[in-house]
Automatic annotation (TrEMBL):
Substrates-to-products reaction catalysed: oxaloacetate + acetyl-CoA + H2O = citrate + CoA + H(+)
Family: Belongs to the citrate synthase family.
SUPFAM superfamilies: Citrate synthase
UniProt cross-references to CDD domains, sorted A to Z: EcCS_like (cd06114)
Name this polypeptide is given: Citrate synthase
Pathways involved: Carbohydrate metabolism; tricarboxylic acid cycle; isocitrate from oxaloacetate: step 1/2
GO molecular function, one term: citrate synthase activity
Length: 405
């Protein structure tokens, strides 16, 4: 076998940057993060401004098309989203025995988003120019239907009758309706609950080259259609180190509760490196995650509205308070991140923990769509094809099976 030094001399120089922590893989005009100052901008607009003045749907337009919509553009976009709220009637069969009750919402979501494309063959040709021609329809369709699919998967898994979206409800309110209304009992959420959900979606709408968005771009770079690309994004988001972290926050809080609710012990364990506090710290933000700042306020409002008596939510508040005054967390810039407060809000409004990551996917859809578009519109785009530093052997003999024992 050839030794590694010889092999390296043959392949030439390759940069090793495991996890691409330091590699700019593309140029983009969508989102800017200043991790030192704790700033996040969508198309240049500060996230705080959007949280205060905009909605998830208007922000989705901004992210996808690069500028805030005029009144007319907003109305057209909202109408397109509304018209697409139902899923094709034959897709309903997926919720009627197509998946076992135990199926994870993310498995259902990635499968259905990809198959959704096959119901719209005019939009999915894998021919760049053609797919771009139908982009406006496909984008609005995905933003609308991802929400319906998530709500339907919740109802299926809980043996509840499937509820259709209503024409007169806004995006987030329609989602809450599809989740929680009963055939003879409509669910009318408090405004603070609808606003908190809309904020969660808005604040998750894009975050530059995270794992799922990079995945969408990589798939798109091969020329694959929008539906296939965002379906791959869902798979990447599923992992506990990415979108799955919000689920881990509640699991950790429940474990503290099961062990007698001793918050000090959880903090001491984290300081001794036994267990990390889930929902604390961030790779890029070395100060407060600006999204967490906004959601913290929303969470306080929601907890007041639901008058929660859930001990897990009390534990969350105590934990955040104690960590805020502890030198270990102060010195290491460990603040609660967006997952901490989005988890608290979702738990308080009754979304089961298993659904949290699928909720994240609804929010991230505009970002994935915008990145797909950016890749598809490149004049001279190359397929993404990283190299590797091979560490194995070469020229190994084939040994026959009988000689291998
Ligand atoms: N709890 C306790 N200690 C922590 C935590 C935590 N959550 N996070 C980091 N630390 C400590 C580390 O032990 C280390 O201490 P040391 O200097 O004494 O060795 C120091 O802080 C720096 O830690 P790093 O691992 O270098 O920080 P990094 O930036 O690589 O990690 C990460 C960021 C992965 C988010 C980390 O903070 C973590 O694991 N947090 C918990 C999981 C989580 O909430 N993930 C969601 C991220 S947000 C999102 O994905 C939307």
């Amino acid at each position: 076998a050839i030794d590694i030094a010889t092999l390296r001399s043959r392949t030439g120089y390759i940069t090793l940057d495991e996890g691409f922590g330091n590699t700019g893989a593309c140029e983009s005009k969508i989102t800017y993060i200043d991790g030192e100052k704790g700033k996040l901008f969508y198309r240049g607009v500060p996230i705080e401004t959007l949280a205060e003045n905009s909605t998830f749907i208007e922000t989705a337009y901004l992210i996808i098309y690069g500028e805030l919509p005029t009144r007319r553009q907003m109305s057209d976009f909202s109408q397109r989203v509304l018209r697409n709220a139902n899923i094709h009637e034959s897709m309903m069969h997926f919720f009627d025995g197509g998946f076992p009750f135990s199926a994870h919402p993310m498995a259902i979501l990635s499968a259905l988003l990809n198959s959704l494309g096959s119901y719209y063959p005019n939009m999915v040709t894998n021919e760049r120019e053609h797919d771009l021609e139908y982009f406006d329809d496909a984008a609005a369709l995905l933003i609308s239907k991802v929400r319906t699919i998530v709500a339907m998967s919740y109802r299926m898994k809980n043996g509840l009758p499937l509820i259709y979206p209503k024409r007169d409800l806004g995006y987030s309110q329609n989602f809450l309706h599809m989740m929680f209304s009963e055939p003879y009992h409509e669910y009318y959420p408090h405004d603070d609950i609808t606003k908190a959900l809309d904020l969660i979606l808005l604040l998750h709408a894009d975050h530059e080259q995270n794992c799922s968005t990079s995945t969408v771009r990589i798939v798109a770079s091969s020329g694959a259609n929008l539906f296939a690309s965002v379906s791959a994004g869902v798979c990447a988001l599923w992992g506990p180190l990415h979108g799955g972290a919000n689920t881990q926050v509640i699991k950790m809080l429940e474990e503290i509760h099961r062990n007698g609710g001793d918050v000090n012990k959880a903090i001491e364990d984290a300081k001794m490196g036994k267990k990390r506090l889930m929902g604390f710290g961030h790779r890029i933000y070395k100060t407060y995650d600006p999204r967490a700042m906004i959601l913290k306020e929303a969470a306080q409002k929601v907890l007041k509205v639901v008058k929660s008596s859930d001990p897990v939510l009390d534990i969350a508040q105590t934990l955040a308070e104690k960590a805020r005054n502890d030198d270990y967390f102060i010195e290491r810039n460990l603040y609660p991140n967006v997952d901490f407060y989005s988890g608290i809000i979702m738990k308080a409004i009754g979304v089961p923990t298993e659904m949290f990551t699928a909720m994240f996917a609804i929010g991230r859809m505009p970002g994935w769509i915008a990145h797909w578009k950016e890749v598809a519109e490149r004049v001279k785009g190359r397929i993404t094809r990283p190299r590797q530093i091979y560490q194995g052997e070469i020229d190994v003999d084939y040994m026959r099976m009988r000689d291998r024992e």
